[in-house]
């Protein structure tokens, strides 16, 4: 009999951008219906279907939780969180009948269906539940964590060796954040990583997307928007060609200057920049990279700001696609003195162990009864079951058909 406590101990242990998108969509489209689906993009060490019973039990426990008064007070203290949203969260509880776990052979299937403002919150919890259950069945001896700690210290030493350069003199210092909640090795390990980095390199490590840990350590919770926010706007009755502008405008109206980093890769960078005109370029503080070549992407952003006669030095690039510390430092060096930069590092911080990390996602697949999709600039990241809609989306946004492995044909 399993006597371990449930993996999810607090509803606050979610990425900040889940709360910010949740608030925006509750205010703008409270009646929307959505579907989310779990996908594993790489080959696990054993079939994930074996975890079905344990996942069911963890979801039962998740759906018994409420936000505590202290957690709600913490959220209320964030200036961009509105009091009516906190009131909503005070009544909120996940509904078990909105999420199902099934198997097809060795394949694990997890689907959430129901009101968008109820089912969108499942994603991050499902991902770190699956991760922690998966790694518990692999060898977990002291040597695993010893090696993980050695690798973490290597990262810290690298930062300390380049301390003078990364302080940047008259430029902005090298800054990075923990974005590793969804694919962490375990909750205890992520907490150790965040605490160690805050103690060892506070001049570089400035916060985490994990709201629970940000509260616990008194550091900054980090995040703005993810793909699902913009994808949902594909179903909200706007002309499809205008959905990005409608989503960005909705964000501006909700946050009035706060949380000013926009995500660029929902239908490709070129299509995003077509929509990111002088109005949005002045209103948003910067942009986040999550697919495609990061140097080419950043150079496009610089050119775009310069064409609009906006000083790039007044803006920021946030890089968050499969980063590690050495690659983040390379990008920092490339753009230093030209535009502000910061770096969200996920799996390489919270799941750098001798075990191969899972590449798992849980993405929105439909909203209001129609398909939604992301057209990634990286092969393998597009996710849509409706090939007709995918082809139409490519046509509308003149997005090239992928040539890399893993994309739909």
What secondary-structure arrangement, pairings included, does this model have?
Elements: H1 16-28, E1 33-40, H2 52-62, H3 69-76, H4 83-91, E2 99-104, E3 107-115, H5 116-119, H6 122-136, H7 142-161, H8 163-167, E4 176-178, H9 187-200, E5 205-208, H10 211-217, E6 220-221, H11 227-232, H12 243-255, E7 261-263, H13 269-275, H14 278-283, E8 286-289, H15 294-307, E9 316-319, H16 325-335, E10 340-345, H17 347-350, E11 360-367, E12 370-371, H18 387-396
Parallel strand pairs: 4-5, 4-10, 5-6, 7-8, 8-9, 9-10
Antiparallel strand pairs: 1-3, 1-11, 2-3, 11-12
Helix pairs in contact: 2-6, 3-4
Description:
- 43% of the residues lie in helices and 14% in strands.
- The chain is of the alpha/beta class and 409 residues long.
- It has 2 domains: 16-138 and 356-396, nicotinate phosphoribosyltransferase; 143-350, nicotinate phosphoribosyltransferase, CATH 3.20.140.
- The strands form 2 sheets. Strands 6-5-4-10-9-8-7 form a 7-stranded parallel sheet.
- The protein is globular and about 60 Å long.
């Amino acid at each position: 009999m399993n006597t371990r406590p449930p993996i999810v101990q607090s509803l606050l242990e979610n990425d900040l951008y889940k709360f910010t998108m949740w608030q925006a969509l509750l205010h703008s489209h409270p009646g929307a219906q959505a579907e989310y689906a779990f996908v594993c993009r790489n080959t696990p060490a054993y079939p994930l279907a074996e975890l079905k019973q344990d996942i069911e039990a963890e979801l039962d426990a998740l759906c018994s939780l409420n936000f505590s008064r202290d957690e709600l007070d913490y959220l209320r203290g964030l200036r961009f969180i509105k009091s009516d949203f906190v009131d909503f969260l005070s009544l909120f509880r996940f509904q078990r009948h909105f999420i199902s776990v099934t198997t097809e052979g060795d394949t694990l299937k997890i689907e959430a269906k129901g009101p968008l403002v109820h089912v969108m919150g499942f994603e991050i919890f499902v991902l770190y539940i699956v991760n922690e259950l998966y790694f518990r069945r692999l060898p977990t001896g002291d040597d695993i964590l010893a090696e993980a700690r050695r690798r973490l210290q290597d990262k810290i030493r690298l930062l300390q060796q380049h301390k003078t350069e990364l302080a940047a003199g008259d430029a902005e210092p090298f800054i990075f954040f923990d974005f590793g909640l969804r694919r962490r090795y375990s909750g205890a390990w992520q907490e150790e990583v965040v605490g160690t980095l805050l103690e060892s390199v506070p001049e570089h490590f400035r916060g985490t997307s994990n709201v629970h840990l940000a509260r616990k350590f008194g550091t900054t919770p980090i995040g703005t928007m993810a793909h699902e926010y913009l994808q949902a706007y594909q179903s909200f009755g706007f002309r499809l060609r205008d959905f990005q502008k409608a989503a960005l405008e909705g964000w501006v109206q909700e946050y009035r200057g706060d949380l000013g980093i926009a995500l660029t890769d929902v239908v490709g960078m070129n299509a995003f920049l077509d929509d990111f005109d002088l109005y949005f370029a002045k209103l948003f503080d910067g942009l986040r990279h999550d697919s495609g070549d990061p140097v080419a992407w950043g150079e496009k952003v610089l050119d775009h700001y310069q064409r609009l006669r906006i000083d790039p030095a007044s803006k920021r690039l946030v890089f968050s696609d499969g980063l590690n510390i050495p690659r983040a430092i390379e990008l920092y060096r490339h753009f230093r003195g030209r535009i502000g930069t910061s770096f969200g590092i996920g799996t390489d911080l919270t799941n750098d162990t001798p075990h191969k990390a899972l590449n798992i996602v849980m993405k929105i697949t439909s909203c209001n009864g129609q398909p939604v999709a992301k057209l990634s600039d990286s092969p393998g990241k597009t996710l849509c079951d409706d090939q007709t809609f995918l082809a139409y989306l490519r046509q509308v946004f003149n997005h090239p058909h992928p040539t890399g492995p893993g994309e739909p044909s």
